[in-house]
Amino acid sequence: MRLVVVGAAGRMGRMLIRAIDQAQGCRLAAAIERPGSSALGSDAGVLAGLPALGIAVTSDAAAAFAAADAVLDFTAPDATVAFAGLAAEAGILHVVGTTGLGPSHLAQLATSARRTPIIRSGNMSLGVNLLAALVRKVAATLGTDWDIEIVEMHHRMKVDAPSGTAVLLGEAAAEGREIDLAQHRVAARDGITGAREPGAIGFAALRGGTVVGDHKVIFAGAGERLELAHVAEDRSLFAQGAVRAALWGRGQGPGLYSMADVLGLDTL
Description:
The chain is of the alpha/beta class. Helix content is about 35%, strand content about 20%. The strands form two sheets. A six-stranded parallel β-sheet has the order 2-1-3-4-5-11, sandwiched between helices. Strands 7-8-6-9-10 form a five-stranded mixed β-sheet. Helix 1 (about 10-20) crosses helix 9, helix 4 (about 75-90) packs parallel to helix 5 (about 105-110) and helix 6 (about 125-140) packs parallel to helix 7 (about 165-175). The radius of gyration is 19 Å and the shape is elongated.
């Protein structure tokens, strides 16, 4: 399977190149960077700390997509939307691990997914997606008198909050309760906030050091508390999950898919 990595010079881009090199059933077809990047013309393998692969980093995404089967994308929201349009034109699978997507970005991805398959997740790891399935089940089982709070911590350089994984877990909790997360989400508290609104799903974002990613979902009831947690120790697991998603997605029809589809967790 011929895979393209966009944002190839970034931390996740380099990890994706290494993950593709280690995986069976796929190969790197192209590596893309923005116009003006100092990485343009570099060998993609050397850029990722591997032996030379004979693939020079380029900014011509359209040409690369035309000769590939899928694109792996951990870039930025606006760039992801643009790449989705190009992937739809080329008719190739788009695997999206980009976080910080807003409603307008998601709407544009949905439009592109009418023409090509898109697999999108705020986190590509098996553990996190299993956690999301458990959160959905627990939220559906417990009544609304149990409060839900989601706490996450990441390294000091992370630019979006709450994390895409925290939002993924919040969406799972909302699905379990059959409610709209947007109408029940409390993203921050400061000052005299008053009593907690019944049915709210709260988020707290912590930043510091070099933390890869810690997430905890707290179900707080009267006199008891249930906590479900995941700790990521190595970012390479996200790249490995993206490659796994690409291999699963080959041959799928147009539409929006998630890692729950890839991992078969929808029935949990």
